[in-house]
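Recap quiz, item 2
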Amino acid sequence: MTPYHRPPRFNWWWGHRAYSLFMLRELTSVFIGAYAVLLLVLVRRLAQGRDAYEGYLQFLSSPWMVVFHVAALAAALYHSITWFGLAPKAMTVRLGDRRVPGVVIVGANYAAWIVISVILAWIVLRG
Amino acid sequence: MASPTMTLEVLRYRPGQDHAPEFQSYSIPYRDDWVVLDALNYVKDELDGTLSYRWSCRMGVCGSCGVMINGTPRLSCAAFLKEYYPRPVRVEPLNHFPIERDLVISMNDFMQKLPTVKPWIIREDARPLTEGEFRQTPAQLDAYKQFSMCINCMLCYAACPVYALEPRFVGPAVLALAARYNLDSRDHGRTSRQDIVAGPEGVWECTLVGECSTACPKGVDPAGAIQQMKLASALDWVRNVVLPWGKR
């Protein structure tokens, strides 16, 4: 007798909290990708000269672009925070015979995030 | 006072008789010390002897009785009716596996994938038994112990959407067992497992949904094992491709 195969539902992630949160985390990459494209265009406009650059800045300050950037920031935060939460799964750090607890690894990720952000902010904002 | 009852809905599939699986409802007595397996046994003994399902130890050791209970992969011997009463309990065969009959799934795919990662201790040196055992410190045991608790119940496969969408994926339990032996201080076989572990059917298929570890009834963390092996495989690549002079 041939066994019966139940194909997975196309919307397998719908109606299941953990699967839906996973899909949400995956979808954040769309925002990150779109943001990266905007950033690359910004560099290109900068190379094209002052007029092109200022025109692009004007485009970026339109209400829809502001809404997009807020959404992209939220997506980046959701992605980063959920990944930091998963970091102890990938990293088992041992000091001598003892395993470093997961909260320390998560904390180290946050600390590195803050330090790098402060350095970048200093480089960008120092005028 | 009449004894309380509850509804047990079971997905039935009788090959050669049914075109597709269908739910069948049974009214069963509710007892707060019964698990879902007790309810299935009640149906089999008292209501419908044609119902087929696997079970053996009734104590969460053998790994035979895994089913979907209200959409979640669980051992039917470890899921109490009182967790669901008075709502109905819906029992289905494990997701992502072909159904042989009723709640009995075909485990052929898992059984074929399991030996591909050589889940046994591989030594470079053969040593006679007379020379005694290979000794380990508690820390060396601790490095792999949780991964050795797997009972091959396949709940993690039923929880893994990647396994459903990419049938070549060797899956959580097989990779957790590969990690169990890779992390064992007595083992020298990591290189011979890498073809599968770091190959197209291995760890890189995993997108870290993480539900395999949630589903595991024995506290094994297959998602952790897979991420650790991703990290180790990436470091192999750095050593072999980016820094070939660092190759040992």
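Strands of chain B lie at 5-12, 22-29, 66-69, 72-75, 89-92, 99-101, 104-105.
The radius of gyration of chain B is 21 Å.
End of item.
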